[in-house]
Amino acid sequence: MTARSALGTARPGSPDLLRSVFRRHAAGVAVVTARGGAGPVGFTATSLTSVSAEPPLVSFGISTGSSSWPTVAEAGHVGVHILGEHQRELAGTFARSGADRFGAPTGWHEGPEGVPVLDGVLAWLVCRVVTLIPAGDHRIVVAEAAVGDSSVEGLPLVHHQGRFTGLRD
């Protein structure tokens, strides 16, 4: 077998190639929320990463074209919510442009630092925004965990091949 046949058909780097490759990457599903002057904002994120244990840092990406971006850019704190496999509809609501993300049936309450905290999630954090890093048409937000809860049992929601799904054995 030659190296060329083992690699398949190589294509130049492009947005389409990146999307195609990452459709094959299973990722956990989180919702990020923030408090804004016009009300709460939030979006579905599959780019959540644990950065450091000491101090406890996380990161996520957000498009500068996102309706949530202006609020997140100014927020001192954000909420990070890990969704369970029972929350496919919630993930879809926060992923859909123009959706009333905090209207019924979304359950939420004002949490620490005034950050919207979603009900029924597997785990949540309220994090202090540490820095925003430019990265193409996105910003990488690095935030330090201030308070949270991880006491709910359940299996996580994952994103794979363009859809929300559960884990399989």
From TrEMBL:
- Matching SMART domains, A to Z? Flavin_Reduct
Keyword check for Oxidoreductase, yes or no. Answer: yes
SUPFAM superfamilies in alphabetical order: FMN-binding split barrel (SSF50475)
In its UniProt record, a GO molecular function of this protein is:
FMN binding
Gene3D superfamilies assigned to the protein according to its UniProt record, in alphabetical order: Electron Transport, Fmn-binding Protein, Chain A
Q: Which InterPro entries match?
A: Flavin_Rdtase-like_dom (IPR002563), NADH-dep_flavin_reductase (IPR050268), Split_barrel_FMN-bd (IPR012349)
- Which one Pfam family would you cite for this protein? Flavin_Reduct
- Provide the GO biological process annotations: pyrimidine nucleobase catabolic process
Q: Which UniProt keywords apply?
A: Oxidoreductase
Residue span(s) of domain Flavin reductase like = 22-166
PANTHER family listed in its UniProt record: FLAVIN REDUCTASE, FMN REDUCTASE (NADH) RUTF
Name of the protein: Flavin reductase family protein
Organism of origin: Streptomyces griseoaurantiacus
